[in-house]
Amino acid sequence: MKHALITGGAGFIGSHLTERLLGAGYRVTIIDDLSTGRMANIAHLENHPQLRIAIEDIRNVNVMDRLVSECDLIFHLAAAVGVEKIISEPIATIEINIGGTEVVLQTARRYRKKVLVASTSEIYGKGTRFPFHEDDDRLMGPTTRSRWSYAASKAIDEFLALAYHKEVGLPVVIFRLFNTVGPRQTGQYGMVLPRFVKAALDGQPLRVYGDGAQSRCFGNVHDVVDAIQRLAESPDAVGQVFNIGTDEEVTIFELAERVKARAGSVSPIQFIPYDEAYEAGFEDFRRRVPSLERIAAVVDWKPSTALNETIDQIIAYYREEMQHGGNHP
Ligand code: UDP
């Protein structure tokens, strides 16, 4: 039986990965400081005999030393996430994303454990050639705009992980997550789809930032954790970087309309200028589309859930939460 350590395992994606790996017969240990993760995400798994949970910051080197020594492989998902959080807490974003990954990699090296490092599509920045391929150039905004600290911190994580692979032969795999959505995701840190669904069900306005013509590809979290597991189990993936997401593209305005229609909601759609939604001078991406060629070639994975189905899953999740008096943020 394989023993996985999942940093950030109480987060949205981490909790789905935990569930998947337990289902596949893994033992799982979670380390999570509950900064954005929530015990509610893993409450249904808490009594699983093969699950252990440590509530701790991954920069606690003594705890990490013990947990890494006891596991077979590490899924490193703990990080500061969400555009709004990144803008409002730039120090924590940089320090956690870089300092945390340093501890994970140093400890993994000590015990020679395989590490899968979560990265982000933000890495591509303002690239204008679509879809984004893993080896494309990156185009970043200025350091005076906080948003870019996230992409820069994750780029350092990638450099560091690849350096450990190159210099000391540590088995690492990097995966860049594009917009990932599904049940349990909170709108609290800025993510658009849970916000739209919650607003639609509450009869509140769906707030579209900018002109709504910007587009995204929203991958279903169940597909995403399937991809992560396949990468973990493939010796061919080691030392490489992979996009994970979907290439079904939708504008944010169309997303708002679809959510409204599928929820049977009468909420109005409101347009909010970027300066008001975020901060003066905020830079959004007009498009973001992954190339999925590499992951298809190496582990034979492609996304299988259409956006409408994902929207329905999220609507069902929030309806259930509301019925049970859940106070989902
Ligand atoms: N967005 C929006 N209303 C919201 C939150 C976000 O219109 O309440 C927009 C946001 O400006 C961006 C898109 O939706 O163009 C996706 O935002 P999200 O924060 O979910 O992901 P990211 O910006 O990281 O792609």
Describe, in short, the structure shown:
This protein is of the alpha/beta class and 329 residues long. The chain is built from 12 helices and 13 strands.
Describe the model.
- The chain has helices spanning 12-23, 39-42, 61-70, 83-88, 90-111, 147-168, 192-202, 221-233, 252-263, 274-277, 293-299, 307-323, and strands spanning 3-7, 27-32, 51-55, 73-76, 114-120, 172-177, 180-181, 206-209, 215-217, 219-220, 241-244, 249-251, 269-272.
- With 329 residues, it is α/β, with parallel strands linked by helices.
- It has a domain at 3-180 and 219-245 and 288-305: NAD(P)-binding Rossmann-like Domain (Rossmann fold, 3-Layer(aba) Sandwich), CATH 3.40.50.720.
- The strands form four sheets. The protein has a seven-stranded parallel beta sheet, with helices on both faces.
- Helix 7 (192-202) crosses helix 12 (307-323).
- The longest helix has 22 residues, at 90-111.
- The two termini are 36 Å apart.
- It binds uridine-5'-diphosphate (UDP).
- Uridine-5'-diphosphate binds next to helix 7 and strand 8.
